[in-house]
Amino acid sequence: MSHAPFHILAIVQAGRLQYEAVLLAASLRAMDPTFPGRVIFAEPQPTGAWAGHDPRIDSTEVLAVLDRLRVEVVPFEARAFGAAYPHGNKIEALSLLPRDAPFLFLDTDTLITGPVSSLPIAAAAPTASMKREGTWPKIELYGPGYTAIWRSLHDKFGLDFESSLDRTFPDEYWQRYLYFNAGWFCAPEAGPFADSFLEIACAIRAAPPAELVLQKLDPWLDQIALPLVVHKLGGGRPGPAFDGLDGALSCHWRVLSLLLARESDRTVEILYEVSGPNWIKRALKEYEPFKRMLYQRKGARVRAMFDRNALPRTEAKLRRRLKNAGLWLR
């Protein structure tokens, strides 16, 4: 089923992200060849809040591949976050999008596994990824609990806290509270989302509520602000129409060895398929972890180490086994 077109936005810069961006773009064009929207990879510039650093793509092979994959690499100047908080790139780069256009933001460590153009983003309320753990806040023994912390944030921005709760979970259990992974988020209009995300994130950083005194904002600021933005704009948890993200349409893999260890055979087939052409291989081989995992068969070793039907119960245990085998490469 087709829906109104939307644009895809991701961040690309020197280092790991530029090589992840190649996999993202290659998988999108392979799995959704008629995707009708713009594909915009925002590139921070060595000015403004990135002054003294050069985050621009530094591989001519990567630039050539992205051009061939019809990706628009669009420069932007970070003013609020930059090198002090690189996660803030995704907040500030939203200003590159046409203000009235629907959009899907994706972290570069995402593999497209199906036709994402089937998503009803233009017709749906803002939402974001539920592929998350209880990473924030970290509740201290004598400190405020989840309710006090999240209520204080909603109150700061004049938002109704009670309507954000998932009452199928008990009080003071982290999943009761609106919390997302910022690996993907979307909205039917980019302008209000961009304005609210920047305003809310900056306001939390400048003057966090007293209930946050024991909490770390770095690197969690984007994920603290995101649910407040979604809630403010009338959105919430994604419904069944978005099950394909982190499902049949995409895989937010984070570290390549994690993908190889635990994802489906089909996802791994797509990974090898899109990284196989020589013109893509030339770019990806510049990055040592990809060279070893994809082209020197280390990935096959990772795949053979685990039974997908009996994975370790926690990611920490899985990660430990990979590190002990010398196969945790990033």
Descriptive account of the structure:
The protein is α/β, with parallel strands linked by helices and 330 residues long. 36% of the residues lie in helices and 11% in strands. The protein has 12 helices and 8 strands. It has helices at 16-31, 60-68, 89-92, 146-156, 190-206, 221-232, 256-262, 265-274, 278-284, 288-295, 298-305, 315-324, and strands at 7-11, 39-44, 72-76, 103-106, 110-112, 127-129, 181-187, 250-252. It has a 6-stranded mixed beta sheet. The protein has a two-stranded antiparallel ribbon with strand order 5-8. Helix 5 (190-206) crosses helix 6 (221-232) and helix 7 (256-262) packs across helix 11 (298-305). The mean pLDDT is 96.
Key terms for this structure?
globular; alpha/beta; 330 residues; single chain; 12 helices; two-stranded antiparallel sheet; 36% helix; 6-stranded mixed beta sheet
Helicity, in percent? 25-40%
**Poorly predicted regions:** none
| SS summary, helix count | 12
Q: Taking all residues together, what is the mean pLDDT?
A: 96
Oligomer: single chain
The count of strands amounts to: 8
Q: What structural class do the secondary elements suggest? A: alpha/beta
Rough outline: globular
